[in-house]
Design a protein that fits this description.
This protein has 312 residues and is α/β, with parallel strands linked by helices. The chain is 38% helix and 25% strand. It contains ten helices and 13 strands. Strands 9-10-11-8-12-13 form a six-stranded mixed β-sheet. The chain has a five-stranded parallel β-sheet with strand order 2-1-5-6-7, sandwiched between helices. Strand 9 and strand 10 form a beta hairpin. The protein is globular, with a radius of gyration of 21 Å.
């Protein structure tokens, strides 16, 4: 006879802030029975919209979420531009925080948030589902032990409003995170941004370099009608990699896997070395995104001064 699964000794009350795609998945995962049983208990959700209940999860006010002794953890699943403010509020209220990437839209802000978390003795976890997918596992295996000569990642997708999601290097930082995870820390070399606001079109090209001076190009193109897909071209000393097989499970339960990593942090089951490595990775990626944004803004300012339009 299988022994009954006992409840965890410590339970953590969770509130989900924002109920878009990510927030809805987080609510679903928190409500689904887990084996072994999860130490997380959904208290409710916060939204600017009046939604009532969602699958028996109750809507509560932001102030109640911040002040409630029942709430130990906040999941920040709102639009990117509001991540920093919500993280700051919940950390200062003494809550642990899980936030969808990016945690902030500048390196300086992220560093400040991490400082608050450390001063408060709270976990600040930035989600990185891009490192939990089948295609990333395939890439990691394929590049292992090979010497990169040059490479590129080219992603296309629908429009993204900068006012809601931030500058493209931040809103699309998943691609950069993968490049850093595959090839180590990168140096920023240069970048350009083509923008057609009337057509909701953006194309960013960032030129990066590995520690051994191998060029990597990251291209992000967004606009109406552009299919969500990404292309790779990595030239190694032994061969070239240009395609990724389709996932067999459709990236199953990657948000749940991310939650499991977060739970390990809450329970003190992740080593200080692994925590420091993850923090370094996140801040490095945010730092590169910051450099790309500043460079493109500088070019745009110079172009405006010269009366140029269109491409920066």
């Amino acid at each position: 006879m299988t022994p009954a699964k006992t409840q965890p000794e410590r339970m953590f009350g969770v509130v989900v802030v924002g109920v878009g795609r990510a927030g809805s998945v987080r609510i679903r995962d928190l409500q689904s029975p887990q084996l072994p049983p999860s130490p997380l208990k959904l208290i409710g959700f916060v939204s600017r919209r009046e939604l009532g209940n969602i699958n028996e999860a109750k809507q509560i006010s932001l102030q109640d979420a911040l002040s409630s002794a029942e709430v130990d953890v906040a999941y920040i699943c709102s639009e990117n531009v509001s991540h920093e403010e919500y993280i700051r509020l919940f950390l200062n209220a003494g809550k642990h925080v899980l936030v969808e990437y990016p945690m902030a839209l500048s390196l300086a802000s992220a560093q400040e948030l991490w400082k608050i978390a450390e001063e408060k003795g709270k976990i600040l976890h930035e989600e990185h589902i891009e490192l939990l997918t089948e295609d990333y596992a395939f890439l990691k295996n394929e590049v292992a032990g090979k010497q990169l000569l040059e490479g590129s990642v080219y992603f296309t997708g629908g429009p993204l409003e900068e006012e809601r999601f931030g500058f493209l290097a931040f809103s699309s930082i998943a691609r950069l995170s993968r490049l850093v995870s595959l090839f180590g820390e990168l140096a920023f070399i240069s970048a350009t941004m083509e923008e057609q606001k009337e057509n909701q079109y953006l194309k960013m090209t960032a030129n990066l370099e590995t520690v051994d001076k191998r060029p990597l190009t990251w291209i992000e193109e967004r606009g109406p009608g552009l299919k969500r897909e990404w292309h790779i071209n990595f030239l190694f000393d032994s061969d070239r990699l240009e395609s990724i097989p389709p996932p067999t499970q459709g990236h199953k339960n990657i948000f749940l896997r991310d939650q499991e990593i977060f739970v390990k942090k809450l329970l003190g089951q992740m080593s200080t070395e692994d925590l420091a490595k993850e923090k370094k990775h996140i801040l490095h990626c945010l730092g590169i995104a910051d450099e790309i944004q500043k460079h493109c803004q500088h070019l745009k300012k110079e172009g405006s001064s010269a009366g140029a339009e269109g491409t920066v």
